[in-house]
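cron nightly-structures :: item 1 of 1
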Amino acid sequence: MVDPNMTSDELAHMLTMSGLEVEEVVPVAPPFSGVVVAEVREVARHPDADRLHVCQVDAGTGTLLNIVCGAPNVRPGMKVACATVGAVLPPGDDGKPFIIKLGKLRGVDSQGMLCSAKELKLPDEQGGLMDLPADAPIGQNFRDYYQLNDLKFTIKLTPNKADCLSVLGVAREVSALTGAPLKLPTYPVVAAGIADVLPVTISAPDLCGRFTGRIIRGLNAKAATPAWMKQRLERSGQRPISALVDISNYVMLELGRPSHVFDLAKIHGSLDVRWGHRGESLKLLNGNTVQIDDWIGVIADEREIESLAGIMGGDASAVSDDTQDIYLEAAFWFPNAIQGRARRFNFSTDAAHRFERGVDFATTVEHIERITSLIVEICGQPGKTSVGPIDDHIVDLPKRAAVTVRTARASKVIGVPLTDAAIADIFTRLGLVFARRDGVFSVTPPSYRFDIEIEEDLIEEIARVYGFENIPALPPVAANAMRIAPESRRSLFTIRRQLADLDYQEVVNFSFVEQAWESDFAGNADPIKLLNPIASQMSVMRSSMVGSLVANLRYNLNRKVGRIRLFEIAAVYWRNQEPVDGPLTVAGFEQPKRTAAIAYGPAAEEQWGMPTRNVDYFDIKADLEALFAPRRLTFLKCAHPALHPGRSASVVHDGNNIGFIGELHPRWQQKYELPLAPVLFEVDTVALQRIAVPVYTEICKFPAVTRDLAFVAKNDTLAQDFIDLFAAEKQLNPLCRILQVVVLFDEYRGKGLNAGEKSLAFRFTLQDTQTTLQDDLVDAAMAAFVAAAVARLGARLRA
């Protein structure tokens, strides 16, 4: 279609630099030498081996070669690939090349080897020797005859370049990039010999904009696919199936047009292009039976569904070797009506891959003609084959709105001076129809381009054809200003470093998780569901990071890691009607950043200096307090669906609940098969980032005084209740303002106490910054604390 007149390396580089990344360029066959086309003249049974044959082979050397062969399909008159003495064949499993030598097999001289496709590392369908066509020239180098010196380009396309999912599309690109003329393929018109038309109704114009088809009768479906077509299909990654299917696949690769061939005898009455109905089902060509609903487009006849629209045909109307009459179909399916449908059924097809990106809607008739001509040529029977007229239904085609691009804007974005003439030349080479006026181009996208919608799309096209390598790499010129981070906020990097210093390792997880995790670890019965999940186990957005960390924990335990300490800083997703759409927000959803960590196994690496013990709640509480230091946290008993009911707490800072901490619930420990219960926390990252600006305070010169008090209280009285009471008393009672710190240092239950009671011992540190404390002031303050505890908490001093 186009001759760029350059080497393969130059072509690969040019395509890659234009946005069509060439992943690899490899020969279609591994290197080998000394293999020629030969003819088997005589075949005799080996005198000493039942499964071997002694063959007389003409390899074009002037004398017949005596070759021993074990292939079951060898026969006189057969054209084969023959490796002569000295030939070097592709390496075997040991990686060493196989050299053909003069030798003996069971006492009979063998002057070469007759080769199978497998021995030459070529696609093998039939097994045994390669049966070459009768017109294969004897003595010709087999690599030249079979075109094995060709190179195969593997191109990795971006999703927007659907127009390059064909040889024609890549040829257009090469023509535009090199200026070489494009030789568009011609479509011979096959004259209609019968008036037969299959009635078609398009009931869903939002599904199918154009539906083109024709009837062809009297075909020989058993006809062999031509060798040249098989070869091209195999080298494009397609497995030849049958002539009718191969022709459809060939035109898809050639022109980018997926089509489908129905067995006309298996269609009941007319066809209806519509959306599916809930409760319907269809057995597909791949053997799967899928359930249909009103989100799936179908082609149905008067009795049943025959095909999934734009995805795959049904098994009931598939062509077979007994097919004589067919209905050939090519349609335009709207991309948004195909997107995501194949993925729902956990498979993908070449047709769906193209239709969900956009296929040319203007050429269905021409492409039907191309397919028809190949079918008649390959499967037609003289005097029997007849072709019906093309039945073209057009109900709703995409509107091709003109897109405007400004020369000045393109020059600014690309960073090179561009003229109107240069841009006009680029658009002409790309085949884009445009109107020009005063540095402004109005471009009408062609029917095969679905990626041109806004000005930036056209600027991208200009840059691609201009050549990214031709754009100079210049440093940006702009006024710079140093922005100082506020002292009252620390960076995420600092928090990550602190967690790493505390012996945690960072993990990065997906934000979409299993729905069961949301139910188990967050008690979330209505999670935010993904419309198009990449996998069934990643179907909802997480509202907590506990499930992800537990999954990381299990992954490491399965690999015999005994001590695990992990953390993650990432977003979670909650429903909230307050946020509105903005640059970083989505209406109806809140996306706060959270910091979470999990610890499992020994509290420290095994060593001689301390006994081994498992990590517990207080170890992780200490880590969390270290993260927030010097700010103080309050821990209040709470119930959390992920945590042990008696070993969990909410984390409170400045009166705000900022997270939770605790041991994993025994129910989830058992369900997720964890030998020990991990301890974890999750807190608000914004609260963790806030820090107090350091303020100088003079160190007090006067000594502090400590006093210990032990209170007896009911078991349901929290230690935090006492601490909060003492803090309140310090604010309200002038006698108590000398209190600096109060800590719990002992808890006791048992002998000497009544049932349902416990003893809590606190250490008070008191200090006056102006003078040395006197015993009477200390005693008055301690008496006030005791009185408050007795009056408000019902406690008593322990004797």
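cron nightly-structures :: done
The longest strand covers residues 33-45.
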